[in-house]
């Protein structure tokens, strides 16, 4: 019988393994029942179009695994029925009973669940420009290093040491205690650390311990939808705390709360970093009002634009903080390991809660992670992806500065992997998402993060999912999609032309802000040259030229805006100058004055 499976010669699985899987599937489906004679290796090789040696190796492994038996001078035969004695195979038990009408009315017994946000497309990797935070392109995963760590954890002595573990792997706890936590200023004993199945599991354990019915829990708004849903499921009361550029606002509402859950390193989802003053205010409020703080140190390892602030757990008053973090998110798809740090009495209770549900994270994953850390692979990976994320974040910032210069709502000052973007007034974000998807661009809508009123025209761009060389063309495609959906153009403005345009621009001083919030001054000299200084200490300097052509103002910098020439219509109202694109949409503005007492030419 000709085999019914097809080999994938471009796949990651070897041809020998594909043949083994195909034969086993034929046996399992009873297409090749017990006692069935397999085609000879020569015949199978011809039917599949592979070398005979490839089939021979596959057959040898099937014999070694006991699926196939060799009979002298007769050939290879299916050794037995793979489905024999296994429930769920053969005649399906109970199907008649389940098919009878008037069964249990499940809709009356099941609790009502909140409407979940729309999931990300499962095929996001097929899009050219997926600006999705938390999805990681394949280039970031340390495949060789993880393979080495996993291989070491599977040595016989290693298996013997971790296979009987009924709790946390002491080797992994020690690596976290001595290598990861000190970087956050946290020094803990082994009995103050608990391993979890990722940060979401840790968050759930904290709520199970501290959020009783009627508890008032302060959460960030915007913030994770799942957190609010978990609190409400436990019949707690959500107290919304607004977020600004300095992180969660600490005000009088905290006085009535029992618990606060915060993401201080990079607020989820805005990316704002909780300022040092706000950290002190939060801890002071926690002490004054007997408040427990859960610190979800989201993306703590991606602070690459500035010096880290200390973790709340490490500061004065940090003993009432339960600290949550995880290994790098790039490892999450296959690892799902997080950890909690708290006083040992708290950890003991958390350990009992965990034991009642999942016992402990898989010991083999724990040991592989311990090997990965002990070999220095984790530090090397974090340095590499830190450099890569910095390049990507700067590429996104520069591209937005070039194509959508007034768009960033909250500028990350300590790294992270996202930009919180605000579109023009009146923008329908759902319509923009559909138009962008048609151009191969995916971005994240932010309405599920808000429990209160949703500010208009907001969305989020992330850089974990696409390499740096695709960021600029991705933002260009997003800008094109934005222009597709904008129905409202800028109000009619008095556009300058000819001599009036030249007189206004020659000798002008332009004061504005960069997309990342720094002051910027541009001088347009009468000879057609221009200089620019940006930053609070004028640390970013560039020169270029400007000219008038066809009633449009042209400019070209040496380095800024990619060093490319650009042309704009110009409108001036009072002391405000506006640059307009060919569709007469306002793309940027500045305050216009004169250079010293230089008279217009």
TrEMBL record:
Q: What keywords tag this UniProt record?
A: Aminotransferase, DNA-binding, Pyridoxal phosphate, Transcription, Transcription regulation, Transferase
Q: What is its EC number?
A: 2.6.1.1
Example GO molecular function: DNA binding
The UniProt entry, under SMART domains, shows: HTH_GNTR
List, alphabetically, the InterPro entries matched. Answer: Aminotransferase_I/II_large, HTH_trans_reg/aminotransferase, PyrdxlP-dep_Trfase, PyrdxlP-dep_Trfase_major, Tscrpt_reg_HTH_GntR, WH-like_DNA-bd_sf, WH_DNA-bd_sf
Report domain HTH gntR-type positions: 13-81
Pfam families, A to Z: Aminotran_1_2, GntR
Which major enzyme category is it? Answer: transferase
Signal peptide residue numbers = none
The family this protein is said to belong to: In the C-terminal section; belongs to the class-I pyridoxal-phosphate-dependent aminotransferase family.
Name of protein: 2-aminoadipate aminotransferase
| Upper lineage | Bacteria, Pseudomonadati, Pseudomonadota, Alphaproteobacteria, Sphingomonadales
Instruction: From the UniProt record, report the name of the gene that encodes this protein.
Output: tauR
